[in-house]
Amino acid sequence: MTIDRLTIATDGPGLYEFTDRALGFVRQAGAEEGLLTVFVRHTSCSLLIQENADPDVRRDLDAFFRRLVPPADDAAMGWLTHRAEGPDDMPAHIKAALTAVSLSIPVAGGRPLLGIWQGLYLFEHRTRPHRREVVLHLAG
Length: 140
Fold this sequence. Notes:
Elements lengths: L1 E9 L3 E4 L1 H11 L4 E7 L4 E7 L3 H14 L20 H10 L3 E7 L2 E2 L5 E7 L5 E10 L1
Antiparallel strand pairs: 1-8, 2-7, 3-5, 3-8, 4-7, 5-6
């Protein structure tokens, strides 16, 4: 069993790829087979496995989630109660609830078995910069 923590700096909403860092972790662990678990230790961002070839995919996903869950000061969000941390906070919690805070990826041949176009992303839902902690755990 091997564990590592990554810090990912964000500068606003969007998808931040960390595939190479996860691949390096698995390579350094030296495990031929196992299960890589990725977990984010925050409630206002999430994790995604998503296409990493065309940046338009990331832009479209971000735009979709902004339309699906607008800021708390949008008239459509008047029903929200939690507003103490700004207009992006409760919508960020909703977006995180709709996505994932942990991922499981099989490892074989010393590599995570991601598809050719798949990458690992932290999906930041807050508007101001953050330093997010992602835990990598490899069980063999």
